[in-house]
Specification:
mainly alpha; 75 residues
Length: 75
């Protein structure tokens, strides 16, 4: 047996890794303070507001006229 074969992950190790990661995240969540959760929520809002306010309308303006033209052409 070579050293490389010894460390090849199997199906059981993938499950063990997921369980380890889940336990790690659960422990992290238990130890976060309310201030940390509030700061995370504010960060998500600050990032998502410009996307919802500016990027989404631009995308819709580019897509909707083509869709409307296609539907009207089919009618």
């Amino acid at each position: 047996m070579t050293n490389r074969v010894q460390y090849t992950p199997g199906a059981a190790s993938a499950v063990e890794f997921c369980q380890f990661w889940s336990a790690h995240v659960d422990a992290l969540e238990r130890h976060l303070s309310a201030g940390t959760w509030a700061m995370a929520a504010v960060t998500v809002v600050v990032i998502s507001y410009p996307i919802a306010r500016f990027v989404m309308p631009v995308i819709l303006q580019r897509i909707v006229p083509d869709v409307v033209r296609t539907v009207l052409h089919l009618i």
